[in-house]
Every structure is written in structure tokens, then in C-alpha cells.
């Protein structure tokens, strides 16, 4: 009986939980060899397990070793039947024979770009910051090619673009098992294209490959900036998709209008569909994300002091990847050094303090200032650095210039360059104007202090 993706994940989570318990005294073994595994396929009496590296594969398939022995007995217990275990790495997926039966022609391109089953809608926490992007992704996974094409999702790093893209792909794959979905990172697209041009896949046609795909997910499209030949090719592929009603979803670390070094015709195509941004999660959403991550680590949320979790959510408030890194550090630290079951505020503070020190050291940049000023006035970064002179934009721009001087002592000449090529004296006048207004204008004082507070976080 074929198992769905969700069932497979549930089965595997259950198996892993039992393996983890069995290895409670040897948690390193669990973390090194089991933690990153997933269930790739169950067919008849064969269970195929995806592992993170050849080393991991070598260890797990050694039948005389502890890892294999524990896993096979847990599998037998959970499945109530004997299974043969097969371990494969991502690289091997497309040469795997179980796969070849279903797809006789193996992928020549993007063999390593596969959907990560760990990223689903179920474990993506929704909040004000991302609810539109989630809704649109769900809509598209259910009804591709008919509503918004392309869907363009952008955000600062670490806020869930890649997760959402995989979730969309996994959901679509489950709904339309006979359709073909391809996830690619733009970096990978560029590399494969260069490889192709160098004749490494002489008998294959790069463009034709894309004709076989029903849903195309392209991550980090900003990487196409200043790559003219690849852009041209991408433009053709993009048009093929949209013209034939096949869905394309793109992510980027900036809005389409902020993509410099990308041809106008391509950017205007991106704007044809729907672009949505994802923001920084609120503290409450960050807390729910922490909760999800704790549960997915098979740990008990009750063992974590809620004040401690709040401390993490407030101190790693701008980037979910960093928050996750902090949580992993707390778990590592408590398991390895403290051997404690209850994780209190003090322990959490102690374990993440090196990370916070590092964060504090990493210096503020002019870009951070522009970001925060733009967020405060509800504008885009490019409006702030543009030549537009409407009063609200000019005010925000003056404040950003002032903060660059005040916090970074950026030379006037450099400020002028960053802010749309203005001359040295224009910058001095702008900064002086803010300094004067700050003495008496309470609105200005409030704005500057709110923005500075955000910049310190
Ligand atoms: P980006 O691609 O925007 O840089 P990622 O998708 O790689 O960000 O996310 C970084 C990490 O944060 C991932 O492990 C992802 O699972 C997690 N993450 C981000 N947003 C959420 C969310 N809303 N719910 C759960 N996990 C999240
Ligand atoms: Mg990403």
C-alpha cells in the first residue's frame, strides 16, 4: 500500500522518537546519525531511508553496529513486520532503482535539487508577518497556474522563504502525484547552465528539460543579478511557463523593484503576477515557532521555563534562523554540560551568551539603518535612496542620513553616494536640519528614538 507523504513523516517521527529513547545514554550517536534522516519510501518490504551523508550511510547500514541493530528492531516493533532497510543519500536518489521504476528517465539536470520533506505547511507557523504569503502559497499548490502567475515572495534572510517554497512543493506533490515539480536554487540554476554551456551534458537540452515540469519553484532569484546570459535564458523559460499556464513561484531577498542588475523586461514580468512580502514575526509568533521547534526535537515544552523562551524570542527577534540556532545551542548545552531536565532562564541566558556577544560585535551597517527607517515610515528601501522629493520620503531620507552620521560616522561623500548620488553639501544640509529639529520637535525626537531602539535589537 502506498503511503502518503504525511503518513511517511508520521511513521518516521514515531520511529525516530523510539530510537532516540533507546539511545538516551548515547545522544551523540542519535544526533550524528539519526537526527537528519527521513523516510524516503516504503514499498513492499523495503524501507528506503534518506540520510545526510555517505559516512552516515556507511555507519547505518553496517548490520553488526549498534545503529543498525536498534533501528531495525524499532522498525520491526513499530511496523509489526520485518522490513529490509536501504539507506540512500540525496545524491543517489535519482539513480535509486525504486525510483527508476516509476521514472525511467532520470534527471540529467538538477539531480540534487530535491524537495525537503521536513519543510511542510504543518510546521510553518502562521502570523501577521506571513499569513498572506501562506494563503497565496496554499492557493497555488491547490490550483496552480490559474490565479497568480508568477507568485513572488520576498523577505529578509531567515524568515522562511525556502521553508515555504518546499512546503508548497510538498503539498502540490501530494495533491498531484502524477505531476512534476522542480525546486531549484538560483545559484544552482546558474551553475547547471554554465555546466551545460561547457558541454558537460552535450546530448541534453536545457530548455527542453523545463518543458517536462509542471510547477517550478525558484529560490533566491536575486542571485541572477548581473548575470546577463543566464538572465536571458531564464526569461525564455519563464515566458514558456507563464504562457502555457504552468505555475512558477519565485523568492527573493528584496522586492522586484529593488532588484538591480536584472533586466527591466524580466522585473516587469515578475510584477505581472502577485508579489507578497514576509516580515519579521512578532514576539508571540516567535514563541509559537519556538514551541514547534521544541516539539519537533521530540522534547517536552514543559521542561522549558517560559521566561527563558521569551528571553530567546526577544533577543533573537529578527531572524528565525538565528532563533532556531539559539534554541539548538540551548538544547546542546543543557544535554551535554548540565544534564538537567528542566531548562531555566539562567541556563538559557548562559548558553546563548556567546551568540549574543557575537551579534553585538557584528557592526551595524548603513543598509540596516535604511531598512529600519523604511520600515518605520512604511516605505521601501529604494524610495529612501531614490531621488523622489515628496515631503514624507524626503523626511525619511534625511533621518536615515542623520543616523548614518550619528551612529556610524559615515563620511558625507559616502552618504551622498548611497542616497541616490547626492552631493556632499546636500547631505550636510540634511543632517543639520535633523539636528536642529531634534532640539525642539517632539515628533522628530520620538521617531529617532523609536528607530534607534529597533536598531539596537
Ligand atoms: P529564508 O529562505 O527566508 O532565508 P528559511 O526558509 O531558510 O529562510 O528559514 C530559516 C529557518 O527558520 C528554517 O529552519 C525554517 O524552518 C525556520 N522558519 C522560518 N519561518 C518559520 C515559521 N514561520 N515557522 C516555522 N519555522 C520557520
Ligand atoms: Mg532561503
How would you describe this structure in keywords?
single chain, 457 residues, alpha/beta, five-stranded parallel sheet, three-stranded mixed sheet, 21 helices, 55% helix, binds adenosine-5'-diphosphate, binds magnesium ion
Task: Name the helix and strand elements from N-terminus to C-terminus, one letter apiece.
Answer: HHEEHHEHHEHEHHEHEHEHHHHHHHHHH
Apparent shape? globular
Number of separate helices: 21
Q: What is the average of the pLDDT values?
A: 88
Please give the share of residues in helix: 55-70%
The strands making up the biggest β-sheet line up spatially as: 5-6-7-4-8
Strand content: 5-15%
User: Structural class from helices and strands?
Assistant: alpha/beta
Ligands present? adenosine-5'-diphosphate, magnesium ion
Cα distance, first to last residue? 52 Å
Report Rg.
25 Å
The low-pLDDT segments are 97-104
How is the main sheet built?
5 strands, parallel
- In total, the number of strands is 8
Q: Can you summarize this structure?
A:
The protein is an alpha/beta fold and 457 residues long. It has helices at residues 5-22, 27-33, 54-60, 66-79, 97-102, 131-142, 161-175, 186-197, 206-211, 228-243, 264-270, 283-296, 306-315, 320-338, 345-361, 366-376, 381-385, 391-408, 412-418, 424-440, 442-456, and strands at 38-43, 46-51, 84-89, 151-154, 181-185, 215-219, 247-252, 274-277.
